[in-house]
Design goal:
2 copies of one chain form a homodimer. Chain A is an alpha/beta fold. Chain A has 15 helices and 15 strands. Chain A has 2 domains: 153 residues, Aspartate Aminotransferase, domain 1 (Alpha-Beta Complex), CATH 3.90.1150.10; 215 residues, 3-Layer(aba) Sandwich (Aspartate Aminotransferase, domain 2), CATH 3.40.640. The first copy, chain A, is 44% helix and 14% strand. In chain A, the strands form 4 sheets. The first copy, chain A, has a 7-stranded mixed sheet, with helices on both faces. A 4-stranded antiparallel sheet of chain A has the order 11-12-15-14.
């Protein structure tokens, strides 16, 4: 009798799309697939025993506080620990429900419809998704194999920009790291042009050699919003990240946080604090670095052995990803179909671009796949690319 | 040398305000204060032993899965448990980081700047905060001591409304429950007028007598977004809530959820599931009801004993709040200052109104305060109100 309800969605809801990665992950859950698609850390790196002991301490000491509502800013001792680690006052720290939430909160308080927002080329897909809801005008900053080019940040390019979003360390998706001189030049230009920097740093601790470059935050604490995460150094299933920001910006972010979810779970915050405050990460992070460095080298060797001429890729010094560029004119989405038919998966590069996608790129994640499968998977990818290249030549000749 | 950074905030950031409750809670953290202000459940109701056992099972069975990323929709077995409890398919369930996040997600996908959104008079402050970010035009629906008046929902009033937000059970802040006949009339009118209903139900299980009225969801599953919460029946520090919605709406909400925080922590979801799936709540909820019912009665008795004539209040059959109305022309904010000077606190009523606040109202929470302090605190409030009333008469005479 009744007509079904016809809801009216918001204009921004129309901009919502499922992440390409998420859709591909669904396909690649089949056990026979060698998947280089996911961005999951290796579960071998989760400090299970330390977290179990931390849980036991929570229940022994003060379980009611860990189960009760808490302050929107986050658990005091954890804010202090984070502040100390980054050399900032704890009052500048806000705990978030994963680093993804930080992107949402920043989008909320900084972006109006049409606001220019500067991003790297390419950049992190999840940030494009989060910011898109607030309908910015993305401006892609010219970037090369070392990352974004500070000299491209002319007053014309940055005019009216609400912020520049950057991942200086082992960027998702390329794995590249911004060199020291570029960091200095970036911070100087931003300062001169009243440009707020958003520094997203989930991978900074994952330098295989252990060397770390200074954060943008450390170079100009009053001009940078810094995003940190426990997902890659402790466990992503806790969904724990944090923001460090100048007081006036943090104040607005805390208000937005309160409206978003009141606060990040008391239980997971205390769990993390119990685990890290006694120095767990000092022994734990080197073990992650060693594992990921070896996995990366295995994949680099396999690429060198199996990829046909004309294919290039990044050589990361940290993090979880390698970025591959096929010869001009090839489409990584078409090749993905052929790869999946042979049970190998990756993420095509196009969704990582805010503008003018390079469709001949793709991302490889190497941290969860065993070495022998990395070798086998890359060998198959090499054959698939070789076949596509061979098929392409006659077509070109016919044209 | 450098000028400090001058960030440009979004237009919506200007609408952000700290919750009045939050600011008052800061004052009332002093131990000498008898606080009826907070909305915290009693920690005496947290099933600590059951949660500790649940934690032990997680670490014994599959800790790596509880520490890894998970699906945006939530943990499968928990979705099934919730679906079964509400008689809906698990595919209609989305886990959220507290019920507050559900309000944010609904605001995101349903509200454009200027969209009419219907709310009760008064309504939940946290919902006004969450929706306000998306700049709706709030329309207050006439309500009385039994809740909103369905006959007020004329086509003129509901024209273009994106949804009607309602708390039918033991509403925050009034404690009132919408009678069955009004529920039926509300659902019928909404159906006839293509009006989406958002049913927020954190207190539905807390009926002191144990009797429950049918949810709006059960009356029209295809026309209602239902919000549930574990905060009042398990523990708020887990930040676990959920949405049940028609498929097309849930699909958009899941996309917004992914951009907001990828997913609710795997760990807390599994913790809740381990605790509830063996039937914990069947014994646990009656104990909460008995405690809260007794606390409520203590406060009702104290109000009857100590409040001067002309003051009225609600008589809740469940939940955590009593709503007090002072004689016309009195201001509960002014009286709060006098009350705090005598170490008693409550939340003034004005922030709970979307339009035309009744400044002579306030909210009393009774679940965390011991009975003898309820008696003492209400006696003091009675004196403070009496003094204000007495001071008022000469002023009126002088005018």
């Amino acid at each position: 009798m009744d007509a079904p309800l016809r809801p009216t969605f918001s204009r921004r809801a129309a901009a919502l799309t499922s992440s390409a990665i998420r859709e591909i992950l669904k396909i690649t859950e089949r056990p026979e697939i060698i998947s280089f698609a996911g961005g999951l850390p290796s579960p071998a790196t989760f400090p299970v025993e330390a977290l179990q002991a931390a849980c036991a301490r929570i229940f022994a000491d003060n379980p009611h506080a860990a189960l009760q509502y808490g302050p929107s800013e986050g658990y005091g001792p954890l804010r202090e620990w984070i502040g100390k680690r980054h050399g900032v006052a704890p009052g500048r720290v806000l705990l978030t429900t994963g680093s993804q939430q930080a992107l949402d909160l920043i989008g909320k308080v900084m972006i109006d419809a049409g606001s220019p927002v500067l991003v790297e080329t390419p950049t992190y897909l999840g940030a494009l998704q989060a910011f898109s809801l607030f309908e910015p005008n993305f401006v892609s900053v010219p970037s090369d194999e070392s990352g974004l080019q500070p000299e491209a940040l002319t007053p014309e390019l940055t005019a009216g920009a609400r912020f520049l979003y950057a991942l200086p360390n082992f960027q998702n998706p390329t794995g590249r790291r911004l060199p020291l001189a570029r960091r200095q030049a970036l911070v100087e230009r931003a300062r001169a042009q009243n440009l707020l920097l958003v520094e997203d740093d989930p991978y900074g601790e994952l330098s295989y050699g252990g060397d770390q470059l200074p954060s943008l935050l450390s170079m100009n604490p009053d001009g940078v919003i810094y995003l940190g995460s426990f997902s890659k150094i402790l466990a992503p299933g806790l969904r724990l990240g944090y923001i460090i920001a100048p007081e006036d910006i943090l104040f607005k972010l805390v208000q937005a946080k309160q409206a978003a979810d009141l606060h990040t779970p008391s239980f997971t915050q205390r769990l993390a604090w119990e685990a890290v405050h006694t120095g767990l990460l000092d022994q734990h992070i080197p073990a992650i670095r060693a594992l990921y460095g070896a996995q990366c080298q295995t994949m680099l060797d396999a690429l060198a052995a199996h990829m046909p001429e004309g294919v290039t890729w990044t050589r990361p010094e940290g993090g979880m990803f390698i970025w591959v560029t096929l010869p001009e004119g090839m489409d990584s989405l078409t090749i993905l179909e052929a790869a999946i038919a042979r049970n190998v998966a990756y993420v095509p590069g196009a969704p990582f671009y805010a503008n003018n996608p390079c469709t001949n790129t793709f991302r490889l994640a190497f941290v969860t796949v065993p070495p022998e499968q990395i070798q086998r998977g890359v060998a198959i990818l090499g054959e698939v690319v070789q076949t596509a290249l061979a098929a392409r030549k006659p077509a070109a000749a016919m044209a």
